[in-house]
Amino acid sequence: MDFTFVSGNLGLDLAGTVGRRRGERISLLASPEDLARWTVAAGLLDTPPAVSDDDYAEAVALREAIYRLASAARTGASFEAADRERLNAAAAPAPATALLGEHGLERGGDLRAALSSTARAATELLGGPQAGLIRECEADPCTRLYVDASHRRTRRWCDMRRCGNRAKAAAFRARRR
């Protein structure tokens, strides 16, 4: 499966690697290799990093903590201390590097650096004014969280090409019946 980056925040995009959270969950990060591919697809690193089973478990735990924190921000609930601690611990190491090389942009670092960059993006979102703009996709069964940066703050779907198009097509079919 291909990864999508439509949430408006890298941390939410990591959380979005699980679909259909209220039903039969679909995980796009089913293995350490998938996580390595995600770091490249996310534009964090140029080459897939080495990912051990422990690294993978830590990344999945970070993903779930980000989801719970963003859900809490969306509903106005308090952040769980353990989730905050996990996010802060992941954000603490040096982030991935972006350097201007001889042939253009060169992104580097290891998995820890890539996860640090991701955790820092989530931290900036959750601790800043955009935390109040976190929404959940209205398309059933999608549960992706995203930042509603639309002009009127009325965005309903995580991605117009997928969820929005499906919802509009279903509404059209219902009207035609």
UniProtKB/TrEMBL annotation:
PANTHER family: BLL6575 PROTEIN
Naturally occurring in which organism (per UniProt): Nonomuraea insulae
Gene3D superfamilies: Jann2411-like domain
Pfam families: ABATE, zf-CGNR
Lineage: Bacteria, Bacillati, Actinomycetota, Actinomycetes, Streptosporangiales
Domain Zinc finger CGNR intervals: 134-176
Name of this chain's protein: CGNR zinc finger domain-containing protein
